Amino acid sequence: MSAPDSAADRDRAPSPRADVCVVGAGPAGSLVAAHLATAGYDVVVLDAGPRFGDPTDRGGRADRADRTDRMERHLRPGDDRPIWDTGGDRDAYTASGERDYPLDAARVKGVGGSTLHWQAMVMRLHEQDFELASATGMGTDWPLDYDDLRPYYARAEEELSVAGASDNPFAPPREEPHPLPAFPPSYSDSLFAEACESVGLATHSVPNARNSEPTEEAGACVGYGTCKPVCPSGAKYDATRHVAVAEANGARVLDRVPVQRLDHDDAGDRVTAAVYATPDGTEHRQEAREFVVAAGGVETPRLLLLSESETYPDGLANSSGLVGRYFMDHLFAGMGGTLDEPTRQKHVGFNTTESHQFYDRPDDSRTAIKLEFLNYAGPAPSDVALSANTFGDDLLEEIRGAYGTHVAMGALVEQLPRRENRIRLDPSRTDDHGNPVPDVVWSLDAKTRATIERANEIQREVLTEMGVDVDWTVGPDNTGPAYHHMGTTRMGTDPAESVVDPQLRTHDLANLTLAGSSVFVTGGAMNPTLTIAALSLKAADHVAERL
């Protein structure tokens, strides 16, 4: 559905002069580009995927008609095309670990990146997340603490127009209110409230990067309920907002130009160019003073590994041997069933109530748990209609009987960093440019399994108290990833034990910064995008200091 090239977008030649070259136009890269361009620097952004919508729209936002078409593709019976054009040789991968990892199930290559289809829940990591080894003996401490990132969290919430409330007794300290008021609890949240109080489970609102009221950037949420995979109204934040800011301040954003490798100088001290391919197969070299790779927890290490040279035979910036290592994700634990009363599920496409009561770890007996009260349990009316063999009034009665009586709880569970979990190259399979594809090596350890079991215990206690007829459970044996790719170019002060320093600059190359979740040292159990945004703003400040 991506529009063809227009005259405005055919110029994919390199800029003759650039202060900064950013690889990736997702949430990390767009924030870096926007802030450096606003500061007056010449910025070029290279993204592997398309600019969705009309490429002549220089405002940078995927246009509304395109988004509506993609929503209809999602809802239309029998239309199995991927919503964001994922798949094929471009997105080929392998998964050779103990557990399968369906990488293409939830990634987007394109201007805006994963924020085009995310759920937009944005929480700060807890203080304990940054000092996990010191507090519990598990994992590794970050080389910075919560207070170091605290002002950047506040800036990130402003940039993403976060709607929230200061009603979470387990959240880390903050001085500022959220930029927008929180969304009210859903109807099904109210059904959970009494049971949670009975079992001693405290609940609170969920910060969301979607407009609860209009802003200059977008209108308020109008309740399409299709937040994942697409928000037609634009009320949900996506990175094209900051792409627009970058372009308005002179940045060039090139789409469909996958970077093939990074070249460096003879000494191996500095990156000299990003070599990228255009749709016709021509390769170009974009030179710059500073380079920022913001391609996510899978493609960032892959690019570094593809950039091997005589100086870096194991991959660029990989003198530690840790590029691609310590891959982490969040695991899902869930449980749901039916109530003998209306629950009004599917009216809200995102979560409005959570509990972080079991987030901080009392010791090394378990990892972090973030409990969620789902607003999208059970089938939607269209799902019931698709599976029915009746029509007319009989179909209406069947829909009424199957829809709107479901409730469910979910949870994100922390996975500790383990060296054997990694992203590596698979030379036996290549992408559309002949490069080895990423191979996801992923397994589940005993501590994570035990934490998933604990999450299920809490969920069953609440649902039993409510009188729910439980008919499904996602536990350690059938769990899956949340598709939060973290930890493959970890941050640290020791060059032998990390890839980037606390400024997110690689230890090996003085002008190469890595922005995004790949620098996470531990993953916690919070959705990572707010931390990605905070770290990206920090990285942009440090790049500006060097320019």
UniProtKB/TrEMBL annotation:
Oxidoreductase found in the keyword field: yes
Cofactor: FAD
Biased composition (Basic and acidic residues): 54-96
MF GO annotations: oxidoreductase activity
Keywords on record: FAD, Flavoprotein, Oxidoreductase
Domain of life of the source: Archaea
Disordered: region residues: 51-96
Record InterPro entries: 4Fe4S_Fe-S-bd (IPR017896), FAD-dep_OxRdtase (IPR006076), FAD/NAD-bd_sf (IPR036188), GMC_OxRdtase_N (IPR000172), GMC_OxRtase_C (IPR007867), MIP_CS (IPR022357), P2Ox-like (IPR051473)
Domain 4Fe-4S ferredoxin-type, chain residue ranges per copy: 212-241
One Pfam family per UniProt: GMC_oxred_C
Tagged with keyword Oxidoreductase: yes
Family, similarity comment: Belongs to the GMC oxidoreductase family.
Record's protein name: GMC family oxidoreductase
Species assigned in the record: Halobaculum lipolyticum
